[in-house]
Amino acid sequence: MIINGLQIAEEVLVGLKKEISSRDLKLRLAAVLIGDDPEFKKFVQLKGKAAEKIGVEFKIFQFDENISESVMIYHNAKLSKDFDGVLVELPLPKHLDQQKILDAIPVEKDVDVLSSAAQELFYQTSEVGPRSEVQPQRLVLPPAVEALKILFEK
C-alpha cells in the first residue's frame, strides 16, 4: 500500500477551508519563533502558507534568542488574547522553561496541544454511543496524533 501524504494533506486542507468558509469564521493564528534559526523560520513559514491556504490569517512573532522567561510568558498571554490560536515553535533556547512558556497559552488557544491543561484533556476520555457500545473518544488530539488518525482511516 502506498500512502500519498501530499494528496491526503491537500484533502484535509480543502476540507478545513470549506468548513471555515461555511461557518464564516475569521480566524487568526499567531506563531512564536524564538531566535533566528533559518530552518525553524522556514518551517514556521510553511505552517503560515497552510494556514493562509485555508483562510486563516497568520502572523509570525519573532523574539530574540536571549529573551527572558517572564517576558516570553507575558507575550504568550498577550498573543492569546489577540489571536484565536497560538503556536510556539520548539525547541526553545535552553535558558527558557519550555513548559512554563507553553502553559502561558490557554488551552482553547493551544493549537499544538502542548500546554499542561491541553495534555490533561488529551488523556481524558468521554463515553459516546449507546451503553452497549461504549467506546472511549479523545476530547482533543494533538496535530501529530490527528495526522496519524487520518492516515489510519485511509
Order of helices and strands: HEHEHEHHEEH
**Quick check: average pLDDT?**
87
Query: Nearest-angstrom radius of gyration?
Result: 17 Å
**Largest sheet, order of strands side by side?**
2-1-3
Task: Describe the secondary-structure layout.
Layout: H1 5-22, E1 28-34, H2 38-53, E2 57-63, H3 69-82, E3 85-88, H4 98-103, H5 116-123, E4 125-128, E5 135-138, H6 143-153
Parallel strand pairs: 1-2, 1-3
Antiparallel strand pairs: 4-5
Describe it for me?
- The protein has 154 residues and is an alpha/beta fold.
- The chain has helices at residues 5-22, 38-53, 69-82, 98-103, 116-123, 143-153, and strands at 28-34, 57-63, 85-88, 125-128, 135-138.
- A hairpin with a 6-residue loop joins strand 4 (125-128) and strand 5.
- The N and C termini lie close together (11 Å).
- The mean pLDDT is 87.
In short:
The chain has helices at residues 5-22, 38-53, 69-82, 98-103, 116-123, 143-153, and strands at 28-34, 57-63, 85-88, 125-128, 135-138. With 154 residues, the chain is of the alpha/beta class. The longest helix is centred in the first third of the chain and has 18 residues, at 5-22.
